[in-house]
Amino acid sequence: MPANRSTVLRRTFAAVAALPLLTLAACGYGSDSENEDTAKVAAGAEKIDGLDTVKIGYFGNLTHATALVGRQQGLFQKELGATKAEYATFNAGPSEIEALNSGSIDIGWIGPSPAINGYSKSDGKSLRIIGGSASGGVKLVVNPKKIKSLKDVKGKKIATPQLGNTQDVAFLNWIAEQGWKVDAESGKGDVSVIRTDNKITPDAYKSGSIDGAWVPEPTASKLVAEGGKVLLDESDLWPDKKFVITNIIVSQKFLKAHPKVVEAVLTGAVKTNKWIGANPDEAKKAANARLKEDSGKELPADVLDPAWKSIQITNDPLAATLDTEAAHAVKAGLLEAPDLKGIYDLTLLNKVLKAEGESTVDDAGLGVK
């Protein structure tokens, strides 16, 4: 690739990262922001380190189930005592990173691409990944009348959520592995990659303007409900069928100033994940109830049930897969090779996991120096 061409693509990726669009992560549904919580502070509870509030961000998306369920069930507030949990919901990875950088939120659930980009753009000074949250939940769904096998994808119009987002990068990498050529920036080539807001992808599918989509849940299950067929589950492309789709990040400034508060939130996350595992049906209902409160809409059963089954809730950030996802973005020409050393700090998470009798997790050599 010519140097000037590569520079254009990298600038495009950076420009996308700065726009409050839908999103460099598992693109979601929900309001742009709101800061109310229904969980009550227990009588007699004390503030942690005297801190009044901790501001938590997440997407209104099933791949952020830990945040949805933990908030809905009051499990974060229980661990925080009288330090009030305030929440903000986002539709876009870039806007959540901007909120973290400005101090509008302290901790957030977010996808791998915005975490990588936010860390890289700040020269490693803005954030740390402090925990995992979810794996999987991404599928290639197609019109079965037009596409009957993987080889039939060639020459078709396939949607991804946004240029340079996690699913876009994964699809471009898969295309390259088939030996096909696509210009990453324009999406033109042996496959037409159509960048489409997840909110309108089902309508685009119904209208016939796209032949399929490489998308996260619940968009994938929305397409299936419209007659689409799952041609490929991205999990099948990864070792052990696991890859990071959602992580927990924190402002480095907040982590340094309030480690006990961060530890409390991580304790809430680990306990939430344990509760989800023990109560899958009740957890699914709690997540859907939170989606309804956040966005005014709940998911119908024919979308909610298959979407929920395809997502694996995990404490493990699956650090090695994040490194691979970054390499895919570099290969596509959408990102300069980043130095990800120090993007993880799993010290507090592993402390919590030990206390809860859970297995500790690894940072794949990308932990703090």
For the record, give the distance between the C-alpha atoms at the N and C termini, rounded to a whole number: 34 Å
Low-confidence stretches: 1-35
Provide mean pLDDT, rounded: 90
Approximate shape: globular
Evaluate the radius of gyration.
20 Å
User: Which secondary-structure class do the elements indicate?
Assistant: alpha/beta
Produce a short descriptive summary.
The chain contains 14 helices and 11 strands. It has helices at 3-18, 65-72, 75-80, 93-102, 112-121, 166-177, 201-207, 219-225, 252-257, 259-278, 280-295, 301-309, 319-331, 347-355; strands at 53-59, 84-90, 107-110, 127-136, 138-142, 157-160, 192-195, 212-216, 229-233, 244-251, 311-313.
